[in-house]
Amino acid sequence: MKQAAGILGLALLIGGCASAPLERSNYQLTGLADGEVALPCEQGFPDVRVGRLLNGDGLVLQTSAVNWHQAHEHKWAVPLREQLVQTLLQDQKLRQWLCANDGALVMQDFFGTLDNQARVAGYWQWLDANGNRQTRVFEQQKVLAADGYAALVHALSKAWQQVLEEQKAQL
Amino acid sequence: MNNKAKVSKQSWLSPVWLIPIIAAVVGFWMVYQSEAGKGPEVQLEITSAEGIEAGKTLVKARDVEIGRVDSLRLSDDFSSAIVTIQMNSAAEPLLRKDTQFWVVKPRIARDGISGLGTLLSGAYIQVEPGTAEQRETNFVALEQPPLTSSDTQGLRITLISDVAGSLGVGEMVTFRGFPVGQVEEAEFDPEQRLASYQLFIEAPYDVLVTENTRFWMYSGVSVQVGAEGVKFDLGSLETLLSGGVTFDVPRDQPRGDKVAAETEFRLFSEREDAIQQGYARAIEYVLLFDDSIRGLAPGAAVEYRGVRVGTVAAAPFKFYPEDDTALPLKLIPIKIRFEPDRLEGLVSNTDLEGWKDRLQGLFDEGMRASLKANNLLTNSLYVDLAFYENEMPAIELAELNGIPVMPSVSSGLAQLEQKVSRLLDSFNSIPMESIGTKLNTALADSSALFEQLQQTNARLDSLLANENTQALPAALTETLSSINKTLNGFDQNTPAYQQLQDSLQQLNEVLRDLRPLAETLNRQPNALIFDRAPVADPQPKKGN
């Protein structure tokens, strides 16, 4: 019995050493002010939800009309949801609006598309003066400037900034 | 030559005499023949001998000549004509006690035109042979030809109605629209002021007339306006023109046995009346009410929990008392009929005697009659039987004119009136003055009480002003603040909370690091032992 366990342990050790080291790159959206603290609202952080596919920590790339690939070598350094929360809260105007109107963000698309664009789409929700819930849909696509995941992250950042600017313009 | 005439002796009888002899024989023969063919002579009394001629008018039975009018004369009191008829000898057996004679002449009646043939041939006398044992030669002629010949099988019944003229002789009797007989006689009895009609129901339809049969006038058109709307019923054209009488057994009722001939029935003017009031078997009761019976009419319903069990027969019931000691008009008597046949199907037995006992038992259990409003708009009333728990004292009188008295209570409205007036009476009897005095004393007492209260208040003030009492809230505040401190230990900014937060974050990171491993194992369960299959991520491409 002891012998068997020893052999198994050895086999695992050798097998583990035999595998190639995981090459992993971590990315972060541009426009996130480093060191600047994003303060939550009085009632807590605003409600930000991302789709099931975006909830993982790999970047997402559309590979066919019905296929999406979550990269395992190209990851978000910080979960996407937290990055989105931070970008929202570090802008004073957006932060004020979100906190005052119980605003929420639902991000449905945040990936590279088949036609080599970065797609950002989802909707905002908030309570108007009468207490009715309002919804506004957003959608942005930016062409990738180069090959590779870094270019995808840049394009996604640009698209996301565009969305934020549009929303601010609406307020 | 002997010129002497030869004289020969003449024979005794000349042949010439044969002629008168033969003639006499023939004559005798003829007389004999004539006398032998003659039947009995019949005396027929007739109101008017219009169209009848002596020696000419024939007497027929089923259009066969059976005699001839011999002579005509007035009766001794000149009230009628006496026709002497010479019957044929063959007609002798026809002459029975119930043989009927009438004059056939042109007639226009409700059931059609008859006797047109006599316009040319002249009137004749028709004979309807009888069947009785007794022989008879004196008859009274019928005014009208009988509608049904006496040998027709069927049933004769009598209808009684207090409205005369509603039916005429010859009118149809229908059963559900099918003609089954006709009215034979219509009479009005001035003594009883009732019309009676004799009906003949032909066989085989006579079995339709049973004990529970109701007869009513069939006008052909019936319009009923009720709570369920307007009901319009139109009969056939024949009945529409002629009217008539119809009969049936109400639904849910047993038919009863077939009736004997000459049974009397009541004739109702409408089907509804016939159904509701035609219950022959009933127990009569008198009700004594001290309420107003305005709105209660004969024919109104007697109901028990909404089921009709009887009919109001008279309201008020006039019983013609000899003295007023029994009932000095304080109570109004009404008469009702309790008709157990209406309960057919709801109870096992509708026997009258049994129901008398049963009702007595129900009265003992608290069943009472009362007047209830049928319809608030028309103010019509009906008699309601119901059980009352706190039963009112039953009225002493057990019988009125031999009819048992059913115990009754005042109607709801009258009861309400009584209650209200009782309430007002008790209000009146409240001793206001003494209450006022008592109230005054009570007020004086309460002002004393207030004084005491004020004193208590002052004492309370002094107690509150005490230093010890005032120190109490401060101590309380202190306790609360220490509780607060304890709770603050779990606040966001405290070290304990921060530590917890840090630990959670670290755990999160570990989990994130473990996720690729889990994913790899998911994809390739042997990845721990064998080399992981190199799966390169697809590369994003530069856009155009």
Q: Give me the CATH architecture of chain A, please.
A: 3-Layer(aba) Sandwich
Query: Which overall shape of chain A is indicated by the principal axes computed on the Cα atoms?
Result: globular
Quick one: CATH class of chain A? Alpha Beta
Quick one: how many beta strands of chain A? 7
Total helix count of chain B? Answer: 9
The average pLDDT score of chain B comes to 80
- Low-confidence regions of chain A: none
Summarize the structure.
Chain A contains four helices and seven strands; from the N terminus they run αββββααβββα.
Keywords:
heterodimer; A: 171 residues; alpha/beta; Rossmann fold; four-stranded mixed sheet; 4 helices; B: 544 residues; alpha+beta; seven-stranded mixed sheet; 29% strand; elongated
Verbal overview:
The complex is a heterodimer of chains A (171) and B (544). Chain A is of the alpha/beta class and 171 residues long. Chain A has one domain (25-170): ABC-type transport auxiliary lipoprotein component (Rossmann fold, 3-Layer(aba) Sandwich), CATH 3.40.50. In chain A, 35% of the residues lie in helices and 32% in strands. Chain A contains 4 helices and 7 strands. Chain A has helices at 2-18, 80-90, 92-101, 149-170; strands at residues 25-27, 47-50, 58-64, 67-76, 104-112, 117-127, 133-143. In chain A, strands 2-5-6-7 form a 4-stranded mixed beta sheet. Chain A is globular, with a radius of gyration of 21 Å. Chain B is of the alpha+beta class and 544 residues long. Chain B folds into 5 domains: 21-140, no CATH class; 154-277, no CATH class; 283-425, no CATH class; 432-462; 479-528. Chain B is 28% helix and 29% strand. Chain B contains 9 helices and 26 strands. Chain B has helices spanning 18-37, 118-121, 237-242, 271-277, 352-364, 412-428, 432-465, 467-488, 495-523; strands at 38-46, 58-61, 64-74, 81-88, 100-104, 107-109, 112-114, 124-128, 138-140, 154-161, 172-175, 178-189, 194-202, 214-217, 221-226, 229-234, 245-248, 264-268, 283-289, 301-304, 307-314, 332-338, 367-375, 380-387, 399-400, 403-406. Chain B has an 8-stranded mixed beta sheet with strand order 23-24-20-21-22-19-26-25. In chain B, a hairpin with a 4-residue loop joins β12 and β13. The termini of chain B are far apart. The mean pLDDT of chain B is 80. The interface between A and B is medium-sized, with 31 and 21 residues. Chain A: Keywords: Lipoprotein, Signal. Chain A: Residues 1-20 form the signal peptide.
